[in-house]
UniProtKB/TrEMBL annotation:
Lineage of the organism: Eukaryota, Fungi, Dikarya, Ascomycota, Pezizomycotina
Name of the protein this chain belongs to: DNA, SC103
Any Pfam family the entry gives: Acetyltransf_1
SUPFAM superfamilies per the UniProt record, alphabetical: Acyl-CoA N-acyltransferases (Nat)
GO MF terms, alphabetically ordered: acyltransferase activity, transferring groups other than amino-acyl groups
Entry-linked PROSITE patterns: GNAT (PS51186)
InterPro entries: Acyl_CoA_acyltransferase, GNAT_dom
Length: 231
């Protein structure tokens, strides 16, 4: 069964074939979102072939090559629990879209939660958070996480589409932008397939963090011509 892409980007959206529901998050979703395993395994990473620090005064230019290299042993990368996104759903320039499996109950389920009033006791299996930067009309994807068992089924692509549409319905978005580590080869591949291009890199972003030694790759996608809307 192939991925189900919504024809009309209206939230909430139910993908009946897969038993998934896409909707805007509420404050009740935070604990369930934190249970998503965002780690990944990769046998390839991107590496810089020329280092920026090699530049010398008098040079008239420089070249940077980012190349995929095969690892001797696969890398299992986890993100620290406290690595929260910049987004804050309480803020009017942020939003989060969650995906819940309507056939699975959340492990965070509690008898104190009334499913008839909150409707939030289904297991959240994916989410995307985004924030609008008004000065350059940029929609920043601050986080996107799909539970391992739900990856490669089109959910990430759908979430990006919902974020683009929802962002464009709320603000005059010109482009979508995100940051990804050079070791996150699977995510970079998926963003390339979703239409993102390389915007640049930052070799200093993770210095002093648990990701020291990695570098940040920025990716962007021009959506100024798209007219999709979402309610
Ligand atoms: C990166 C991530 C969000 C992608 O979500 P996803 O739901 O698996 O992606 P989709 O199924 O929508 O795939 C979208 C496209 O990317 C491709 N793709 C997805 N994973 C891929 C992989 N590991 N390698 C190569 N291509 C991949 C798909 O084939 C698809 O392309 P196609 O439609 O042309 O066939 C997901 O893997 C994830 O949550 N990873 C862990 C957390 C993380 O790294 N978040 C990003 C931090 S920047």
């Amino acid at each position: 069964m192939g991925p189900t892409e919504p024809d009309i980007l209206e939230l909430p959206f139910t993908d009946a074939a897969r038993g998934l529901r896409y909707r805007l998050s509420t404050s009740d979703d935070q604990a369930s979102m934190r249970t998503i395993d965002s780690s990944f395994v990769t046998d390839r990473v991107f590496q810089l072939q020329s280092r920026i620090s090699n530049l010398e005064l008098g040079d008239i230019g420089f070249g940077l090559d980012i190349k995929a290299v095969q690892l001797d042993t696969p890398l299992h990368k986890s993100f620290p629990d406290d690595e929260d996104s910049d987004g804050d759903d309480e803020s009017p320039d942020c939003f989060t879209v969650v995906v819940e499996d309507i056939n699975a109950l959340s492990t965070m389920d509690s008898p104190t939660i009334d499913p008839n009033t909150t409707g939030n006791n289904n297991k959240i299996v994916a989410f995307i958070s985004a924030k609008f930067s008004s000065w350059n009309a940029r929609l920043i994807i601050t986080d996107i996480e799909i539970s391992p068992l739900y990856r490669r089924q089109g959910i990430g692509r759908n979430l990006i589409r919902f974020a683009e549409a929802l962002g464009s319905a709320r603000w005059p978005v010109r482009h979508v932008w995100l940051e990804v580590s050079n070791v996150n080869y699977p995510a970079i591949q998926s963003y390339l397939k979703m239409g993102f291009k390389i915007a640049g890199l930052d070799v200093s972003l993770y210095v002093g963090t648990q990701a020291e030694g990695e570098f940040a790759i920025f990716m962007w996608k021009d959506v100024s011509g798209s007219a999709e809307a979402v309610s």
